[in-house]
Amino acid sequence: MSERKPYPSDLSDEQWSLIEPVITAWKARHRSVSGHRGNYSMREIVNAILYQGRTGCQWAYLPHDLPQKSATYYYFAAWRDDGTDRIVHELLRCQVREGDRRLEDPTLVVLDTQSVHAAAGAPASTTGNDPAKRVPGRKRGLAVDVLGLVIAVTVLAANTHDNAAGIDLLDRVADHAGGTVTKALVDQGFKNEVVTHGAQLGIDVEIVARNPQDKGFVPQPKRWRVEQTYGILILHRRLVRDYEHRPMSSASRVYWAMTHVMVRRLTDTTTPTWRDPRVAAA
C-alpha cells in the first residue's frame, strides 16, 4: 500500500506499539480459511476507527485513503462483540495508573450520567426522552477513577432513571474491579436505591450534595473528575450525538475514544488544535 499523508488522529509508531500486541494476537487467532491476509494492515484499520471517532463522519464518508467501510466496520463490530476493544482499553488504563504510581484497579469510583440526542437512525426501542433534561435519545453512564479513567460504561434509553443506570454501573464495577472498589461518589440525581445496591456489593455509595449557597457551577471535590471525562469524550465528535444503531456500539465508541486519549497520555503527545500557533499559521 502506498504511503499517505497522516491525519492528526493517526497513531504514531510509539502509540501503535502500545496496542499492537493485542491486535496482532487477535489477527493470528482469526486467520482466513483461504489463507488471505486481507488488503489492509491492522494499524490502518485502527486508524480508520479513531479517525471516525474523532471527526464523527458517517461510515460511507471515510476518506478514500483509509480502509473502506466494509473492512473497517467488520473489525469494529468483531472487536466490539468479543471484547477486544475493552482488552485494549484495559491494557492502557492499567499502564496509565501504574505510571501515576497507583494500583491497577481503584478503590474509589465516581458515577454520573449524560443524556445525549440520538440520531434519526437509532431504533425507538433503544431510545427515550429524558424529561428532566428534555433530551430525546440515550443516557450514557460512566464510572471513572480519580484520574478520570473509565472503569465502566453503560448506555441506556434516555428515559431510564439514574437509579437504574447507577445500579447497572455498580454491577459492572463490581465485576470489573475484582472487589477492589469500596467507595463510590454520586450526585443528587441518584437515590437511596443506588446506596442500598452498593451496600449489597460491598461498595459504600456517598451522595455528594451541592452546597445551597454556591452560585453557578462549582466543581465538587473528586466528583468533578467524571465531568472532566465527559468533556474530554465530547472532543470526539462521534460522541456528541449517539449515532449508533446498537447501544453496544455506543459503549465501544467510548472505549475507543478513551484508548485514543490514553495512548497520547502515555506517549506525552497532544492533538493539534486551532489554539496551536502552528495550526493557526498554516
Features:
282 residues, alpha/beta, Nucleotidyltransferase, domain 5, six-stranded mixed sheet, 9 helices, 14% strand, globular
How would you describe this structure to a colleague?
- The structure is a single chain.
- Strands 1, 2, 3, 4, 5 and 6 form a 6-stranded mixed sheet that branches.
- 43% of the residues lie in helices and 14% in strands.
- The protein has a domain at 105-243: Nucleotidyltransferase, domain 5, CATH 3.30.420.
- Helix 2 (42-55) packs across helix 3 (69-82), helix 2 (42-55) packs across helix 8 (247-266) and helix 5 (162-176) packs parallel to helix 6 (192-200).
- With 282 residues, the protein is of the alpha/beta class.
- It has helices at residues 13-29, 42-55, 69-82, 84-99, 162-176, 192-200, 224-234, 247-266, 277-281; strands spanning 108-117, 128-130, 135-144, 150-157, 183-186, 204-207.
- The model has no long low-confidence stretch (mean pLDDT 90).
- The protein starts with 12 loop residues before the first helix and ends with a helix.
